[in-house]
Specification:
Length: about 290
């Protein structure tokens, strides 16, 4: 089994070389074992693996939570940052992968257009407020990267405002990592055609129509500009916490690969259940005497 983080990592050519997204096929399945392992139905196999890995993630998260409770000063937490074009599958990925963990220890936050109050602050203000406390797993559904993506593409601020943000983001993420947060950043990469299919299926399904926003078509019309903005952001901001591009046309591969990325992130933390500071035998004797 290859290390999925190294397989999907981008930006290794340096901050000035935009990530070539056209070279990453959204339909591909890097790292997926062959039929010898998966059998004849890789989709079914991957779904089973996601359940199995999900149980492992739940245990890891519980150990993180226990450590955060007993030793909050270590500041250990995990932050998953998810970015994608509309219909990229962020909600589905959160549901299927983060959904395996205990909701009590999860901090899930979706970022939409900033509120008037948020607009009165620096772009990282609302991000800092949403960071997972020690012991928690945070999930950002969109993030501070919107401030160099939609803001850039839709011209919501001039370049003199958004360009310095790459450095601000790197500095921010450096401090975050140094203070004990394991950050895993993932762009769910879908194709232009796949987005069209998914938007159409939203329109076709009365239970999904609420997810459609006519503005999504404005963003779709600027697809190439978005890809360019992503290409630059991924390269410029893979400093403290590298970006991963996850081919996401196939939902089952998306969930499987994301589960692995999280598992590898947890493995680095070398978590264990904290040893109690009280004397277990002494406490047991007290209870036994209390017959
Ligand atoms: P959704 O994730 O589909 O609910 O859509 C959220 C919308 O909020 C997307 O269109 C984003 O581009 C937009 N959004 C998120 N962050 C920002 C931001 N910092 N500035 C402007 N728009 C944003
Ligand atoms: Mg949307």
């Amino acid at each position: 089994m290859p290390d999925m983080r190294s397989l999907l990592r981008v930006g290794s050519e340096g901050p000035d070389v935009p990530v070539d997204l056209t070279a990453i096929d959204p339909q591909s399945t890097p790292g997926l074992p062959g039929r010898k392992v998966t059998g004849s139905d890789p989709k079914l196999w991957a779904r089973g693996e996601v359940e199995r890995i999900g149980a492992e993630l739940a245990t890891q998260q519980e150990m993180l939570f226990a450590q955060g409770t007993v030793e909050p000063e270590l500041g250990r937490s995990v932050l998953l940052v998810l970015q994608a074009m509309d219909c990229g599958g962020k909600d589905g990925a959160v549901k299927r992968v983060a959904g395996a963990m205990n909701p009590l220890g999860l901090h899930i936050k979706a970022f939409g257009p900033p509120t008037p109050e948020e607009r009165r602050h620096d772009f990282l203000w609302r991000i800092r407020k949403a960071l997972p406390p020690a012991g928690y797993v945070g999930v950002f559904n969109r993030s501070h990267y919107e401030d160099v993506l939609v803001v850039r593409v839709m011209g919501l601020a001039p370049e003199s405002v958004w360009r310095p943000r790459y450095k601000k983001i790197n500095d921010f993420e450096r401090r975050l990592v140094d203070s004990g947060t394991a950050v895993v950043k993932v762009m769910l990469h879908i194709s232009h055609d796949e987005q069209r299919e998914r938007l159409l299926s939203r329109l076709d399904d009365p239970t999904k129509q609420w997810k459609f926003n006519p503005d999504d078509l404005e963003a779709r019309a600027r697809w190439d500009d978005y890809q360019e903005a992503y290409a630059e952001a991924l390269a410029r901001c893979s400093d403290a916490a590298p970006w991963h591009v996850l081919p996401a046309n196939r939902k089952w591969y998306r969930d499987w690969a994301l589960a692995h990325l999280l598992r590898e992130t947890f493995a680095d933390l070398k978590l264990s259940y904290p040893k109690p500071e009280y004397d277990v035998d002494a406490q047991r004797r007290r209870l036994e005497a209390d017959g």
